[in-house]
Amino acid sequence: MTRQQVAGAADDGRKYRPGGVTGMQPFSLLAELGRCFAADSDRYFLWVPVFLAIGVACYFALSVEPPFWLAMFLPVVAGGLLWGVRLRPLAALCSAALFSAALGFAAAIVRADRVAAPVLEKPTSGTLVAEVISAERTEKGALSAVLAPISFAGLADSERPEKVRLNIRIRDAALRPGATVELRARLMPPPEPVLPRGFDFARQAWFEGLGAVGFAYTAPEERAPPSGAAAALTTLRMKIGERIRGVVGGTSGAVAAALINGERASIPDEVSEDLRAAGIYHVLSISGLHMVLFAGSLFWTVRAALALIPGLALRYPIKKWAAFIAILGATFYLTISGAAIATQRAWIMITLMFVAILLDRPALSMRNVALAAIVILLWRPESLVGASFQMSFAAVVALIAFYETEFARRWTMDAGRGGISSLPRTVLVYVLGIALTSIVAGAATGAIAGFHFNRVALYGLAGNMAAMPIVGFVVMPMALLALLLMPFGLDGPALWAMGKGVEAMLEIAHEVAGWGGADRLIPEASLSALLLVVFGALWLCLWRERWRFAGLVPIVLGFAMWNDVSRPDVLVDRDAALFAVRDGGGELALTASRPSYTAAQWLRHDADARQPGEAARSEHMNCDPGGCVYREPGRPVIAFPVSLGAVADDCSRADIMIAKIPVPYRVRRDCGAALFLDYFFFWRNGATTLHFDGDDIRIVTARQVRGDRPWVQRTRKDQ
């Protein structure tokens, strides 16, 4: 029997023995798993970024900051173990996974240490002298600026933040990037989460180097003009945005500018809401889609132009020349777009694709995506905990896995065959391609979007099918043409065409957003449920053999556990300025509608579509100048006093006392309430939730969940 016959027999499930084939081999699950494991040996590398991510996730899951020496110790130990078992295949794979996780853990430690910078300890007002890093004009005409303080309110260098974000709501205020300015401002520490397990802006600010946020009392006065290459580049970016907004005009101009320079502050909130509801808000985030359309258009244009010159096309690798120019174009797009994290990630991925062309390798493959993920996780490990990283890689991995299937390969390869006669089929394939791409990408990112944003765009397929051809064939090609012609002052027609495309896209978004139930809110989900869904999806996409379908099991289990979350019965915000109680019907009753951001976030986490003002009107919540009292039959009486007199009045009748003010120990001791929390408790612990478990009350605080990490502000009690 030949080697080919033996291989064929193995594929058919037959057992080969010397002397011939002896019938069908009984099915064995273990043997099938072993066969799949061996057959997918070329996919092992794809799991390296997964285990890197596990290491990064372990770092962020800790309640205390690990010592820096672990960044060296763990990879060395794991690497030594890998070297010791390198000749034993299964042990080597397990050791490689352990080494990858150790490397991810170490990368997060190093990154957190490298970005360490002073964080403002308490709200402070004073004169601020700073260098302007960037400035965006908002829809209402205000300025949102990032500044690098040179001096502020007499703070020492060790206490002064390296970067601050400032809102300037003063008419005619102007800032030039790179200039040194002086103004009076009030700065505050980066805000804590509004819920114990809510979005932690302070953590994001730590890794961005932001040590404070605030607002200006006076208009900035320029003390020194801009200087340096970085300032010139930022100024160029701002001028490009002003040119686009001036030529296109209106809301379309603001969106068109955002697609090129990444400035989204001037886009009206209602437009952003329409785009979210229509499932096409991703168009505003300069990421993989924009890089592919921008650099891809440049690649195709350059290659087509060179192909018109026979002497070049027949003698030289014009495809590689076009790829190199496309890399330069993508890099330019990265710089003028503001180089946000999502844009950096997209640049890495598109650059790897064109480098693959230069090296005569497949341009778009799962291996290239894995390489991009490895680079980002080692360079910016904090990206892992952000929705942008998760959603973009989920979409790309799912799409490549889909188009790797035999059905998708045959379908796309046959599309353009047959010349002009195949044009109807090509158009049909393109339309179906948009539909399938939207379905696959939407399915891949839906759970992540629901977890982070508590919303799902039900008609995202319709929105994408209608809008994406306009974006792909009109908006982004015209954006590229406008940038090429802008230095010569000939960009007007291209910007006009781009504006018309954006206008059509916005009309589509508004129409789809108006359909009933377009933007569906979903309640807060369990983290373990999301992890199960993500693991199942990775198993389904990264393997190629039949065992990949086992990934459907954790996906189903994850969705079954999606709402397995304990809903808090009482919520208190980080400053003890707002309270909420869950009534017998499961809805939140607010003591007030402000702080509006906190109230809106609480309602969103609850999938409650009411406005804060509506939620502040409840028959069970009675408020007067002394505070509020919540009374509902069969539930504890909860008092929220705002003065010592109100505390004395409520102590005799309330089961739970939650005071907005500091209360002396003697008063708290003599109070008859079963639970008494005052301002000092929230000052130390931040946002707090109470969970009623029968007769017991479980308290969960933001400080408890966040732990003792560098981005968690130390209160005076800790000093």
Descriptive overview:
With 719 residues, this protein is of the alpha+beta class. It contains 27 helices and 20 strands. A 5-stranded mixed beta barrel has the order 3-4-5-7-6. The protein has a 5-stranded antiparallel beta sheet with strand order 13-12-11-19-20. Strand 17 (656-658), helix 25 (665-670) and strand 18 (675-677) form a beta-alpha-beta unit. Helix 4 (70-84) runs antiparallel to helix 5 (89-114), helix 7 (229-248) packs antiparallel against helix 8 and helix 17 packs across helix 18 (460-485). The radius of gyration is 29 Å and the shape is globular. The termini are far apart. Mean pLDDT is 87; it is low at 1-24.
Provide the low-confidence segments as ranges.
1-24
Largest sheet: 5 strands, mixed, barrel
In whole angstroms, the N-to-C terminal distance is: 80 Å
Strand content: 5-15%
Looking at the structure, what is the overall shape?
Answer: globular
Overall helicity: 40-55%
Q: Assign the structural class, choosing from mainly alpha, mainly beta, alpha/beta, alpha+beta, or little secondary structure.
A: alpha+beta
How large is the radius of gyration? 29 Å
Number of separate strands: 20
Number of DSSP helical runs: 27
Question: Outline of this structure?
Answer:
The chain is built from 27 helices and 20 strands.
